Amino acid sequence: QVQLVESGGGVVQPGRSLRLSCAASGFSFSSYGMYWVRQAPGKGLEWLTIISYDGEKKNYADSVKGRFTISRDNSKNTLYLQISNLRPEDTAVYYCAKDILGGSPWHFLDYWGQGTLVIVSS
Amino acid sequence: EIVLTQSPATLSLSPGERATLSCRASQNILNYLAWYQQKPGQAPRLLIYDASNRANDIPARFSGSGSGTDFTLTISRLEPEDFAVYYCQQRGNWPPITFGQGTRLEI
């Protein structure tokens, strides 16, 4: 079955950097676009970024452009999110998710990981 | 950026009743809308995509309808496990993908 397992969250000071990982299994990871979505405590869902199945195309929400970098290693079935210059407002649960369609993404997210909590605080 | 507005913010119903949740888009998004369910402490779960297609393993009591700017998620007979927060999401004009603010369905 499809599994997505995030890791790398924790408490980090403002201005520091962090790399989140998402280990995928149960499907052909290299065939699907992948996403990061976050959810601040008690708030709604915010799309952050998408990467194409081959890693060639990436898009970012304006709110994180320039500070967040998505990448993937298809040989390791792993998705990454590098976050730099962390701010208190980045405090959230970060989810990775899989596109519903292989190849060109359809931009609906059919499987999600359980999330990893990032707390930005001094 | 397309804004999705969900109503009501909170819906109070009882098991066995019918639930109707609404999502309105600020622009025409054709049928490019999905619905997700999220329970406390859990990740979102895809229910409906392309406005009316049920995702894998989603019970038939969940149905979606609408096109253009007005969309509806209907739960025909509420089960105890259906009480959760529901989000709509559009891909009609991306980037960005956007989500509605959510509707809390409570007992």
Short description:
The complex is a heterodimer of chains A (122) and B (107). Chain A is an all-beta fold.
Description:
The complex is a heterodimer of chains A (122) and B (107). Chain A is an all-beta fold and 122 residues long. Chain A has no helices and eleven strands. Chain A has strands at residues 3-7, 10-12, 18-25, 32-39, 45-51, 58-60, 68-73, 78-83, 92-102, 109-112, 116-120. Chain A is globular, with a radius of gyration of 13 Å. The model of chain A has no long low-confidence stretch (mean pLDDT 96). Chain B is mainly β and 107 residues long. In chain B, strands 2, 4, 5, 6, 9, 10 and 11 form a seven-stranded mixed sheet that branches. In chain B, strand 4 (33-38) and strand 5 form a beta hairpin. Chain A binds chain B through residues 35, 44-47, 50, 59-62, 95, 100, 106-115, and chain B through 32, 34, 36, 42-46, 49-50, 55-56, 87, 89, 91, 94-102.
**How many helical stretches of chain B?**
0
Helix percent of chain A reads under 10%
The ordered string of helix (H) and strand (E) elements of chain A is EEEEEEEEEEE
| Class from secondary-structure proportions of chain B | mainly beta
Number of strands of chain B: 11
Q: What is Rg of chain A?
A: 13 Å
Report the span from N to C terminus of chain A. 40 Å
Report on the biggest sheet of chain B. Answer: 7 strands, mixed
> From the structure provided, what is the oligomeric state, counting identical versus distinct chains?
heterodimer
How many β strands of chain A by DSSP?
11
What structural class do helix, strand and pairing data of chain A support?
mainly beta
Largest interface: A-B, 22 and 24 residues
Spans of chain B with pLDDT under 50 lasting ≥5 residues?
none
Enumerate the spans of chain A where pLDDT stays under 50 for 5 or more consecutive residues: none
Give a quick account of the main beta sheet of chain A: strands, pairing sense, barrel closure: 7 strands, mixed
Q: Strand-residue fraction of chain B?
A: over 45%
Q: Sketch the topology of chain B as an H/E string, one letter per element.
A: EEEEEEEEEEE
Apparent shape of chain B: globular
